[in-house]
Amino acid sequence: MKIKDVMTQDVRFVTPDTPISEIARQMREEDIGVVPVVENDRMIGMVTDRDIVVRCVAVGNMETATARTAMSPRVLYCYDDQSVNEILENMSEQQVRRMPVVNRDKRLVGVVSIGDLSQKSQRKAGESLKGISQPLHS
């Protein structure tokens, strides 16, 4: 089974200048924990709920923070034609719970989460979640 068969396709994204307060509202209203940041039709980062807490709330700049301020610029992504098992293994190795999905032209086409994948392969998703949850060793 391919990622395009299980990913969430209707992905909302923001621009780098979108205020963090607006992104947080979007996350609450849509019950999501990640929003891609797109500039000039290319994904340049991701803002997670954790990014907002660590890079904005904790340092007291919620009033002026934007997506660019909070985003994680290093974006791990997968291709829509990759297999579910391949991505589950990759998520475990990289310790991530969700990934943006791009086509071979590197255009954002969706987002896949460990929850999306668990609906198709509960055993493999459980193994991946175990790997994701392991503490990082320095």
Short account of what is shown:
The protein has 6 helices and 5 strands; from the N terminus they run αββααβαββαα. By secondary structure, the protein is an alpha+beta fold.
Give the C-alpha Rg.
Answer: 15 Å
Oligomer state of the chains in this structure: single chain
Count helical runs: 6
* Weakly predicted, low-confidence segments: none
Number of strands: 5
Measured by DSSP, the beta-strand proportion falls in: 15-25%
The CATH C-level class name:
Alpha Beta
Description:
38% of the residues lie in helices and 19% in strands. The chain is an alpha+beta fold. The chain has one domain: CBS-domain, CATH 3.10.580.10. The strands form two sheets. It has a three-stranded mixed sheet with strand order 3-4-5. The protein has a two-stranded antiparallel ribbon with strand order 1-2. Strand 1 (34-39) and strand 2 form a beta hairpin. Helix 4 runs parallel beside helix 6.
Question: Helices and strands in order, then pairings?
Answer:
Blueprint: H1 20-30, E1 34-39, E2 42-48, H2 49-57, H3 67-70, E3 78-79, H4 84-94, E4 98-102, E5 108-113, H5 114-118, H6 122-133
Parallel strand pairs: 3-4
Antiparallel strand pairs: 1-2, 4-5
Helix pairs in contact: 4-6
